[in-house]
Write a structure and sequence with these properties.
With 297 residues, this protein is mainly α. The protein has helices at 4-18, 39-48, 57-74, 83-93, 105-139, 171-179, 181-191, 197-217, 222-243, 250-262, 264-280. It starts with a helix and ends in a 17-residue tail after the last helix.
Length: 297
């Protein structure tokens, strides 16, 4: 085995010269390693190197293998290692000398800041929505669209009269649905007698706040939040389909859910044009609309 020891020594020297930073570590099992830097300094160097010490996982594994080879080959010699590898070995050999656990104060403060910002956002949103809804209920003209003399009441039955991507055919409804979707949806539900105007706004805000809470707690749940809103809107859209004698099947439910998930404003405009034209044509679906008021009697 003697001829193999010079080869191991040569390999260790070559490995040590390839590492840009060196540090030697002590061992409880003998004088194999010498301590050039205390653990605190090693931790600082590892932190400065983003916890990698400038080496890959393969280099770290190689360093550990060379360490074992050096123990077998040389006994009392010193081996140069990266700070990250040295610190890892130190922690294995000295389990009682572990860094103190980080305090949770910073994490708690960050969570409190998120909650405070969310509360402020909710209050601002509530104020803006109520103010806009009050102005809308006072100054809205009914119906909000114009129809041709050739349009007939039965043209709205069986399917949506306007396609999902024909929202630009009603620029006013399109802009309002993009900037105030909850108010527009509540008005559509009110026209077909499904929800009070205030109830519709309350449902919209409630679902929106639940989605916000999910997104704050877990950023990866943004898609889940979108699906929650889409499911609620799809549920109420089935009543609209029934009012206009449209087909309601699992396929149409899936299409409605996808429409609200990925083309929400377009779907809201499609709903609005359907019910507003029904109001203009005196369709049976809007024979008993609920009052447009925040505080209905």
């Amino acid at each position: 085995m003697a001829p193999a020891r010079p080869l191991v020594l040569l390999a260790l020297v070559l490995w040590a010269t390839c590492l840009p930073h060196t540090a030697a570590m002590p061992s409880k099992h003998g004088a194999f390693l010498t301590l050039d830097r205390p653990p605190a300094e090693l931790r600082e160097r590892v932190a400065a190197d983003d916890g990698t010490g400038g080496q890959s996982w393969l280099q770290g594994l190689g360093a550990a293998l060379w360490l074992r080879a050096g123990q077998w080959a040389f006994g009392g010699a010193a081996v140069a290692l990266e700070p990250a590898s040295s610190l890892m070995i130190w922690r294995v050999q000295n389990p009682e000398d572990q860094p103190p656990p980080k305090r949770a104060d910073a994490k708690d403060n960050k969570a409190a800041q998120k909650q405070l910002l969310m509360l402020i956002e909710v209050l601002i949103q509530l104020f803006v929505v109520l103010l806009t809804a009050g102005l809308y209920s006072r100054y809205k003209t009914t119906p909000a669209v114009t129809v041709l003399e050739t349009d007939k009441e039965h043209s709205l039955d069986g399917q949506f009269k306007h396609g999902l991507f024909n929202c630009l055919g009603a620029p006013g409804l399109c802009c309002f649905s993009c900037f105030c979707p909850g108010i527009r949806w509540a008005d559509s539900m009110r026209l077909i007698g499904l929800l009070q105007f205030t109830s519709g706004i309350t449902i919209w805000l409630g679902v929106t706040w639940v989605c916000m809470l999910l997104a704050v707690e877990n950023a990866d749940s943004a898609f889940l939040s979108t699906m929650v809103m889409a499911i609620v809107l799809t549920y109420y859209r089935q009543a609209m389909r029934e009012a206009f004698r449209m087909e309601a099947t699992p396929m149409t439910v899936a299409i409605d859910c996808l429409s609200y998930s990925f083309c929400g404003p377009c779907a809201l405009v499609q709903d609005a044009r359907q019910v507003e034209e029904a109001a203009a044509l005196d369709h049976d679906a809007v024979k008993s609309p609920l009052p447009l008021a925040l505080c209905a009697a």
